[in-house]
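Two proteins were folded this term; both appear here.
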Amino acid sequence: MANISIKKGTIIYKEGAAVTTVSRIVSGAVKMICACGEIALEKDDVLGAVDLQKMTHSCTYVATEDTVLSTHIFKSQMELPAFLAENEALTTALLRSSVKQICSALDEEVFFQYECNNMYSYLSESYEEYKKLCNKYAVPVKALPGLLEVEAFHAEDDIPDWLGVYYEESTDMLSGPAANAFFQYPNLNTGYLLRFCEDFHKVLKACSEMVEYRSELAFLLMNKNGMDLFDLYTNLLFRIMRDGIDTISLSAAISTILIHIESIPSFNKELYQKRVQEYKETLAGIEDELASGVTSSASLNGSSLENSLDTILTYAKCSEETSLSFKRAISAYKKHVDKSASTDELRTLRREITSLFYEIYTMAFQASTNDKNIPTILKMFLKFGYVDEELAGAENAAYLYSIADSYTGNKKYHVYTIFDWLNEIKQGNKEPRRNEFDVDYAGYVHEMKTSGRIDANKEKEMLADTNEKVLFEIKNMFTLANKMTSGRIATFTPVFSEHTVLSSLESILATPEKIAASLIQIQKFDYSAFYRDALFYDASLPIPKENIKRKILPDVILMPNIGNRGVMWQELEGKSRSTPACYILPTFCQEELLLLLLRITGEYRWEICRRTQGARWNDLSDPSLTSEYFDYVQFYRKNSELSPDAKEKVKTALTKARNSFKEMFINDYLIWVIYEGKGSPRMNKVARRILFTYCPFPQAVREQLKSNPLYGEIMEKWQVKRAQENHRLSNILKRLENSGIEIPKELQAQQAFLNM
């Protein structure tokens, strides 16, 4: 036991550090910072009491005054009875302080529960009110992304109601005359303290879950993407202001949203101020327009977009029946203010529009293949799914018109609009992607022959017919991927509609340059992501077959929709391992493009390994990314390298991934690149070792991390293995040089790869 003096502001114990001592406050004050908030500790309170069982600090303790502590060495939970018997004075303080701490935590937990319920109710009610206002003013209802996925809060482990009463009565007992008798029983005290630790951590876990839950709700109120409740209300306000409608009640609702955001202590103040300033500036601009009698408009000359649907139907040479059916369906769809409603009428209407859309799209595309001067409106239809100026909204239609002629893919970056991609297939430069049953075009045609639907001559003819290939692509990959990337599976329609526009189209347009820049950014942390195993052999060289890495970037196809999901459609084409993967994205990405591509790349990492390993993809006797990760997740409970806390986190992560090992790996991959690659450890040692082995950081990042002890051992082993590979290849290259043989470019590239 020793007394130590601590200056105000000093961190005494930090969350995550090992428990080696417990300390009683002799004088001064300390704040205990944890997921439950801040708990004030004063004279005779004990620091570290809550972690006598886990032996790792779950809280941070900071001196709020100059403080004197009496510290006691504490080695393990097993020694707790002896520790209490040897320190009778400390036992009294320890028991009383532990009860005080959990009572404070339970009070906070109740408050957190109230806050969560209150925020959830407010969000749900405010969105319902927004929909009513849209109906009132005949404005298309826009979705609030993420709201449908959020439910009222329920803790994984409910805190029983009696627990608070139990510890309140414990407070009375420990401060009353019965306490002296209680303190005389070390084993009883041990059991009580261990039960307290267990209960405190249940409360801590519940509070942590509620902190995360409140963050999710706060994101729906306001976020940097602008797809939030604040944006829905302000955009509605701006729209009806121009129509001369009274906006007092709507302005009041916006003020209430801001009050709720201001009440969240952890909310990003810079983001809040920026969004409020943008709102005020836009509001002032509209007020100036109205005062001057001049309103700005992004709409085009009336004749440019007038009767767009008729133009499209005429160009596609649709039958009168198809044209009338589609026009009736679009007219009926436009009349629905809430186009995402789940009524039977709308479900039937959406199905009809979807079926007719792809029929018309096929005919319009076929007509465009022989047209060197495709009308701009047709390009809007083929690239963006645009069909009607009213349905799209005047400003949106104007923007689409302004970019339709210039917006295209870029073969240099392997990026294609769906229109470009279908043209590549039509010209014989690309093959159709596999369908939803994982059958490619050749397999599909062969299946038709074996089932007797076509003969051998027709099979041969179809295999060479690029028109049939285009039809296969539209009926399979295009129709399914278009729906998947939209993120609106239940309410999807392929036509461009204003109600799906939640942000400025210009800001969310996925261009080839943005996609290429995002893929480069990913490779700055996972440089080997797009390298495949290949075999180099040249009979004229005096060397055996050599395993090398070959870089193969994915093809990226852009669907004509506004969406928030990316899809890894296939990791390669056919049996050839030298063919590119296929990534599919929405043309207008309402999620951050880098995150979408990062998630797809994580899935690609998993699937290309599975394809390469074949039946042995989860066989640990043949080490690979999938086999090692599969073994890690399957047997984490028995893994002696993982602490109890780490095992609990693996269990939680697996539950969040819906027990999908692949989904859990993708989530870990995101953490690996976003956090671990920037020196912010978030993973356990086993997962970190697997990711470092198969998705290593480039040299620049490794240099920054080499001083971090968490990476020391795994980095050293990896570098030894890499040095051996480099040494062996260097000897081969030296032998070729000494023989006067020019070094093949494939081997030069392999040496460069080994030095990355």
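Next, the second protein.
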Amino acid sequence: MAMAAGIAAAVSCEETPEDFAPADLTVSVENITFDPEDSGANTFTVSSNAAWRVSCSSSALQTDKESGNPGTSRVTVTSAPEGESVITIYTILRGDGDRTERKTVNVSYHPDGSGDDPGTDPVPPDTEPEDIIYYEDFDGATSNDYYYIDQSDMYINKTGSGAGEVEYSGRSIQIRNNYPSRGYTGASGENALYFTSDGLEMKIAHIALPAGENSFRLTFGNSSNPDMPFNENEDIRLSIANQDNVEAGVRYSRNSTSSGWALCTSDFTISGTVPSHIDLIFGGDWQIRIDDVKLIPLDAQASQTISFENRQYPWPELPETLSPSSDYKYITHRANTVKTGQEVRNYTACYDTRRHNPMWVASAHHACYLEGSGRTYPDPWRPDPEMTEAQQSIIYPYDYAAWPWDANGNKPEDGSYYWSANYYTDEYFTKGHLLKSDDRRGRESDLNIQTFYPTNISPEMYLHVWDEGNGETSTWTIVENLLSYDWTGSRDTVYVVTGCWYGDESHTAIDASDNGQRTDKSKTCIVPEARYRVILKTKSGNTGKPVAECSASELTAIGFWYPQYFPGENSRRKPDRSEWIFSVSKIEDKIGNVFDFFPTVDEAVKETYDISLWEGLEEQF
């Protein structure tokens, strides 16, 4: 991982070479046998050319100094837990973690007289040293400042036979040392991961598994919001992915229900083909902390079995066409995510080549579609390469290939790339995305640009616009925002179909025009009388399972209906909820049962909706 520019920028240009000198740290002893009656036996010296800190592996292990300045200092152990514990001394230097030095002092305390010098205890004959595949305590370097894991890699301290290629990723996750791990065997103290808001995800990628092993034990320390008890498999969601990004949810047990630090354990066996590498994926909510992530092999089969095979399911939101038409053209666009570079399905569309407008656009929504930032500017209107000019609405300039039109002030030479109303009406239409551009982030990425194809655009005139004291808004805007806010806090994928209903086809427009002025490419396009949206998601948002593996009780769906505003209708009244929120089955009825939405889902899920499961919606009405 590259160091963030923001970290480097904090270094003053007036610093001298001495500021970057390597740390020089020594301690006088490596081992202490704690004697509560003789403080002199519990004392050691620290010599350093830099400021330093003390970190203890247990809250019961205490010293008379927590930190020191350059020079030589005496440190006394004032109390110690029974058994073995460790004191870590580390230097505090600005900048690169390579200039941080660490030393340890092993402390042994056996009030009953058992135990020899720590570090020389023989391994009992009936046990063997633990074979660690991967271990991370995030203590590569410690700082008083909090920093995000994508800003610096100073914290990395990975070890184990499979740790060589391990990488870390996650947005809005910090390294903090203000509440070090404690209270469980192996708690390392010092740094821990901290989740700064709800619905975040941390990935530890490319852990190499040893050949011939298929059963494993994963342990990690964690703490949660101090005001609430910890809920297993909810406050932290755990899944494992293979090298093809196929995920399997994994359950764990925790040795305490309190909000303080405790140890979580997950034993699992991989059935079928065992991947060469796995990723650990932790989903967490605000104030969750994680430390001491460890993976070791198990000698016996675990009670929990996971598999990465036979997990290919139909796209759950892809509608089934009940009334086929030779005018329908089905198109799927794929693109790569901005940061992780994984190829994903951007959206699938059913386009009516006679009406020259879409029937529906089906899309999946997940955090991977938000890896980029911003929307492409200027708007990159261009034809869908899967259709001819005669098939699609020409709502793109003829010089689209010259985008971004630098020589013309970022505007195309062709100004006739709109829908205009026919001469006999005063209707005006904007170009409305069915799949919101901001739901496919990444300026100048294919993922974002494909949302500007005519396949994803329909003539739009908002209905139900009113003034709430904060400017004008609409039911369509409410639900667009509802969706974006809702699924960003959901680890499970959310599935959406947004479509058009054309009614009696009495409303038309001409394309390749501007303000009613036809061009030689203009043709008549049918304007939808209403738009609709149906959404499917898991109730908890964090099952870690595909929809096909969820029961009906784990799923929920809802539908929305948006009549267009045509002249003579009141566009500024606040509608009743019953006018625009429906069950998915009711939306199917309203469009004439032309399509079956979410065809693989139990009908009971589509027949009702629970508005309380859609955060932010009930407050609007």
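DSSP finds five helices and 39 strands in the chain. The chain has a mean pLDDT of 82. These notes refer to the second protein only.
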